[in-house]
Amino acid sequence: MIKRSLLLVSLALLLGGCQGYLDKNPDAALDISIDTEDKLQELLTGAYPTASYIPFLEPRTDNVEERVNGIQTRLGESMYLWEDYDQEDLDTPLSYWRECYRGIAQANKVLELLSTFPKNERTRALYGEAFLLRAYLHFMLVNIWAEPYGRSASSPGIPYLTKPEKHAFVDYKRGTVEEVYTLIEQDLLCLRLPLLPHEGGLEAVYRLRRLRARQCPRDDATSMDQLSGTARGTQGATARDLLLSPDSG
């Protein structure tokens, strides 16, 4: 009887201790409130991928040559032979894929949070950077993991995410290459030049021009006009002049 009572008391204490433990959030970082422009900027800055595509794409190009007494990596050898590589090391296909979608998720979160902030020069700059980053990361993914646009626009592309995910398990729709490029273009069309930072704005315009030139599947001056709108860049040049000028970066 005494043993049974002790067992019941121990069980009650154990359950009570577990209840208190489970009431606590295991990750205090989840409680951070993004309530200032500085925190928004930090969140967006952290959206840039920490992995690089060069180590797994460069070995597949004509730039590869024999390096006598050099160190050969498994990643380099697999990429040179065009073999699958499923390891999650830094700068591998899998790590870059995940880093791009992590960055897209953070950019989408920034865009969601910005809707609650007052509109001023800094928040407009954050809007512009978030749209540009989201478009760029999707562009890199569709270029690496899908067919070229000109070869087969109707072939499978990649999932294009435009809002923060609220669920752990989601069946994402994989649009065609053409649909992905259309969504990229829509993000760039949302990115009117007044959204770009005023300070250092010319460099931002050049980055936009380079991405737009790479993204545009055809020479479409009308689409370029839509992108640039009537905004004016620095030094008195129109946005369209900056986007189309051959000596602008």
What does this structure look like?
By secondary structure, this protein is mainly α. Helix content is 53%, strand content 0%. It has ten helices and no strands. The chain has helices at 2-22, 37-45, 54-57, 74-80, 93-114, 121-145, 177-190, 201-215, 221-228, 239-244. Helix 2 (37-45) runs parallel beside helix 6 (121-145). The longest helix has 25 residues, at 121-145.
Which key phrases capture this entry?
53% helix; mainly alpha; disordered C terminus; 249 residues; 0% strand; 10 helices
TL;DR?
This protein is mainly alpha-helical.
Total helices: the number is: 10
**Percentage of residues in helical conformation:** 40-55%
What's the pLDDT, averaged over the residues? 75
- What structural class do the secondary elements suggest? mainly alpha
Query: What is the H-and-E element order?
Result: HHHHHHHHHH
What separation lies between the terminal Cα atoms? 86 Å
The biggest beta sheet reads: none
Number of strands: 0
Low-confidence stretches: 198-203, 221-249
Compile the SSE list and pairings.
Elements: H1 2-22, H2 37-45, H3 54-57, H4 74-80, H5 93-114, H6 121-145, H7 177-190, H8 201-215, H9 221-228, H10 239-244
